[in-house]
Input
Amino acid sequence: MLSACTPSRTEPKTAPDPIVTTRTITRVVCPAEVTAPPPGVIPAYVGAAIDASEAYFSWLAEHLRREKLLAQRLSDAQKDCLK
Output
């Protein structure tokens, strides 16, 4: 048979490619540790006297500075979450 007489090959019909739509949502979620109210301040004991070394008082001052810094960071984080 002559090649001119053979039917041409046709590609099988396929469904068109589906369209995929993606959507990204960014939500800022504050952890419960940030949104919870801070613990109450512990009042100083009236008449308390501490007899300790200078090294202990130095450590205590650093500890209280650190606690104040952490409380400020928590307060700042709470303000940012509530925006």
